Amino acid sequence: MAAGEALGAARYFRRWYKADVKGRPCEDFCVLQHSNRRVGGTICVITLAEAHPLLQRGKTITGVNYQISPNCSRLQNKVSGKSKRPSTEGYIAVVLPKFEESKSITQGLLTPEEYKEVLLKRQHSSSGS
């Protein structure tokens, strides 16, 4: 990650975390919430958290299937706006929730400090301490 990318993400995005997504241990997501709350809602970029197993074990993601159904492919979605890349190698989704939904978007998500505590607990339980 380039230093400029990290500074851009820190400046424009607030990080939130969801641990053990869908009950799968250690499969954590990071939600980057853009600081510029638009009239229609707030832009959220969903990525794999830094501690996700795919990013820890030297694995390479070779492809992502965006075909939702035979008649719906998310590759057809148009994305516009400034080209500021978040601090990860890529993203899973870019979401623009409705304004009413954006108020509660962070309910159930962890702050970076809370997520660090989750990671420490995992480390202690795996080391037998």
UniProtKB/TrEMBL annotation:
<dbReference type="GO" id="GO:0030027">
    <property type="term" value="C:lamellipodium"/>
</dbReference>
<dbReference type="GO" id="GO:0051015">
    <property type="term" value="F:actin filament binding"/>
</dbReference>
<dbReference type="GO" id="GO:0030425">
    <property type="term" value="C:dendrite"/>
</dbReference>
<dbReference type="GO" id="GO:0003785">
    <property type="term" value="F:actin monomer binding"/>
</dbReference>
<dbReference type="GO" id="GO:0048813">
    <property type="term" value="P:dendrite morphogenesis"/>
</dbReference>
<dbReference type="GO" id="GO:0032433">
    <property type="term" value="C:filopodium tip"/>
</dbReference>
<dbReference type="InterPro" id="IPR039169">
    <property type="entry name" value="Abitram"/>
</dbReference>
<dbReference type="GO" id="GO:0051489">
    <property type="term" value="P:regulation of filopodium assembly"/>
</dbReference>
<dbReference type="GO" id="GO:0005634">
    <property type="term" value="C:nucleus"/>
</dbReference>
<protein>
    <recommendedName>
        <fullName>Protein Simiate</fullName>
    </recommendedName>
</protein>
<dbReference type="GO" id="GO:0030833">
    <property type="term" value="P:regulation of actin filament polymerization"/>
</dbReference>
